[in-house]
Amino acid sequence: MDIHIVGAGSLGLLFGSKLAQVGANVTIYTRTSSQAVELQDQGLSLITEMNLVTEKTSAVKIRVWDEIEDSYCIEENAWILLTMKQKDLTDAFARKLQHVLGETGRVCCFQNGVGHVQFLEQYLQPQQIYTAITTEAARRDEGAVVRHTGQGETRIGRMGGHAEASEHEIHLINWLQRAGFKAFMSKNIDMDVYRKLLINAVINPLTAIMRIKNGQLLETSERVQCMRWLYEETMFIYRAHNIPVEQNLWEQVNQVCRSTSANTSSMLKDILNGTESEIKWINGSLLRMADDLGIDAPVNRMVYTLVKAMHQSNT
C-alpha cells in the first residue's frame, strides 16, 4: 500500500516507521532539506515502549515538501497522512495538496483543534478528507530517532458521518492494525473530535501556563479547580451549539492526566521552544464558537490571552 506522510515530527515518524516495517510503501515529506538529509543519512530508528531499538528503517523514502515538482501526483487511491500542525496548513500548502492528491487520493488529518477540515474543503472534495483522532504518544529524541512513549487508539472517519466503510478505508485500517496500531473506523468522528478538543482545551493551556507535566494538574485542589472551570465553560458552549458529547467527560479529562502523567503537553513544549502553539485552534476555536452565539467565555478567554502573551514574551 502506498502511504504518504506530510509532517516529520514525532507522530509522523512513528507512523511512518511502523508502517514501513510491515511492508507499506512509505514516503515521508519533511519541511526542511536539512531534516531530509538527516533522515536519509542516518535512517529512521524507532525505540519501542519496552526501550527496544528496532532496526533502522531504510525503506522509507524521504522528500522535501516544498521541493516537489509541479507535475508530481501520488499513486491512484493512495493515502496522505497529515501529521503537521494546524499553523502549517496555509493556502499555498492546500493548493499543492490539491494537485498532489489528484482525483482519487485521500487525506487523513491528525491535527488538534477544529477548523482544518472546513479549511481543506475549500480546495478538496469532501469525500477526500478524513479526520483522525489518536492517543498514540511519541517523542523525537534526536536526529532520526523516534521513541514510542505510549500506545493508544486511532479513530478515523469523515466529519458529518457517512455510510459503511469503503474498501479503501478498510485497507488503510488493516495496514495500521498490521503495523501494531489499535485503529478503527468511526461512524461518529464528530463526537471524537469534540471530546479531544475539550480534553486539550483543559489540559494544554494550564500545563503551559503553570509549566508543569500533565499529571501535576491533579496534585492540588487549586489546579483541579482551574481545570473544572475550563471544563464547565466548554461544556456550556457545546450545549449551546447542540454538540452531543458524553456526560462523563470530566472523569475522562482526569484519566488522561493520570495516564499521561509524565508527559509534557505539546503546548508547553511550544512555549519552552519559543514556537507558535495551537492555542488559536484549541481554546481560540471555543472562543469563536462562543462569539457566534454571543456567549461570554471568560475562562477560555483568559487562558487564551495568557498563552498568547507567553508567546510574545519569548520573541
From TrEMBL:
GO CC terms for this protein?
Answer: cytoplasm
Q: Which GO terms describe its biological process?
A: pantothenate biosynthetic process
Q: In the Enzyme Commission scheme, what number(s) does this protein have?
A: 1.1.1.169
GO MF assignments: 2-dehydropantoate 2-reductase activity; NADP binding
Role played? Catalyzes the NADPH-dependent reduction of ketopantoate into pantoic acid.
Name the pathway: Cofactor biosynthesis; (R)-pantothenate biosynthesis; (R)-pantoate from 3-methyl-2-oxobutanoate: step 2/2
The alphabetized UniProt keywords are:
NADP, Oxidoreductase, Pantothenate biosynthesis
- In terms of domain of life, where is this protein from? Bacteria
Looking at the record, the residues that make up the Ketopantoate reductase C-terminal domain are 188-310
What name goes with this protein? 2-dehydropantoate 2-reductase
Give the species: Paenibacillus selenitireducens
Residue ranges of domain Ketopantoate reductase N-terminal in the record = 3-159
Q: Which reactions appear under catalytic activity for this entry?
A: (R)-pantoate + NADP(+) = 2-dehydropantoate + NADPH + H(+)
Pfam families, per database record:
ApbA, ApbA_C
Matching entries from Gene3D superfamilies are given as: N-(1-d-carboxylethyl)-l-norvaline Dehydrogenase, domain 2 (1.10.1040.10), NAD(P)-binding Rossmann-like Domain (3.40.50.720)
Q: Does Electron transport appear among the keywords?
A: no
Key word NADP present: yes
State the similarity comment.
Answer: Belongs to the ketopantoate reductase family.
Which principal EC class is assigned to this enzyme? Answer: oxidoreductase
Q: What broad taxonomic lineage does this protein's source fall under?
A: Bacteria, Bacillati, Bacillota, Bacilli, Bacillales
